[in-house]
Amino acid sequence: MTVTETHRAIDAVWRIESARVIAGLARIVRDVGRAEELAQDALVAALEQWPEQGVPKNPGAWLMATAKHRAIDHVRREQVLARKVQQLGHEIETGGAAPEPDIDAALDDDIGDDVLRLVFTACHPVLSTEAQVALTLRMLGGLTTKEIARAFLVGESTIQQRVVRAKRTLADAKIPFEIPPAAQRAERLAAVLEVIYLIFNEGYSATAGDDWLRPALCDEALRLGRVLAGLAPRDAEVHGLVALLEIQASRAKARTGANGEPILLLEQNRSQWDQMLIRRGLAALGKAETLDRETGQKAGPYTLQAAIAACHARARVAQDTDWARIAALYADLADLTGSPIVELNRAVALSMAFGPDVGLRLIDMIADEPSLKAYHLLPAVRGDLLAKLGRYQEAHAEFERAAALTGNAREQALLRDRAEACARGEAPER
């Protein structure tokens, strides 16, 4: 394996294993910022040793073991003075030396899901919601600040500042590394749900790089959602989020072609959709809707999105999709969230239900929204509707603009193919 290939392997391993490594270290050192530093030290060691020694058979375990040794050294250095003081006091009182604690045994205790503990710790109410989400995304899945910034549609420096301040705040406040008791869990739940949602989205449609999908992130988000549903079985939105992720994940095999190129929803081979995941998703959606009825509450944003996904899942062919129902659900979601991205999605649904000119009118109404300025899907959708109306020159410009805005190589290729078709005066392939 060449050095370049080894570095690629290290990058892939880090993407998959970093969350568990950081979470395990946070349990040891009780400081998420220090845990990330120690994990980065292990990554540097891998970059130094693996090109010469080869990638180990279990690279995740290698990273964890290397980081753990550093963590043990850190803990022992931090505690040495306190131990000496404690031992001195014990000797004064009893005339004997205090027993030496077994640090290694304590560190190996089976204490449950460290990753979920990390999520709840990073979502402590001492932090703002924006800081909670940014910090957890940084810690889970190894997302870069650039990728997080794209997910939030804000500047990279803004995310960097949020992450640094959040780690400092948690350290200064000495926040315990734990899944909080039920009474305290609810206040952190909204941020935890948002974190899981954004992690899944990054895996489902990668913001950057050569791959359209990052399945490990989708799997991790889905796993966390299922665990969370067990912790909060009476919360409708938890089940709504799980329903959404299950149904979205069901399409994974159909979303890329033989060479990794993206296949959009309406062109997907629905026989490749995972029916087990769809059934699980519909069952979770049923739980969410039942809980909402029992409590007299309106459906929340995740339950509404799951209901939209269910409309697609129930359509055996794309032509059977109930687009009018989807447009109505997006209208409810827009009223609830006020999000221009939701309005963009509603425009797509309206165009499918009532014609491209209807969708285009709504898009033109939201085109000047500041949060959509760098959002590549706005010109991509506008280009698609213009092409359907036969306005190929305008559509070409929109597809080119969309390609320039996205950081994902696969998506860029798709958008440029569409732009070239419009330049020839042809309708882009569906």
UniProtKB/TrEMBL annotation:
Residues 20-79 form the RNA polymerase sigma-70 region domain. Keywords: Sigma factor, Transcription, Transcription regulation. Gene3D superfamilies: 1.10.1740.10, Winged helix-like DNA-binding domain superfamily/Winged helix DNA-binding domain. InterPro entries: DUF6596 (IPR046531), RNA_pol_sigma-70_dom (IPR014284), RNA_pol_sigma70_r2 (IPR007627), RNA_pol_sigma70_r4_t2 (IPR013249), RNA_pol_sigma_r2 (IPR013325), RNA_pol_sigma_r3/r4-like (IPR013324), WH-like_DNA-bd_sf (IPR036388). Residues 188-288 form the DUF6596 domain. Residues 120-170 form the RNA polymerase sigma factor 70 region 4 type domain. This is RNA polymerase subunit sigma-24.
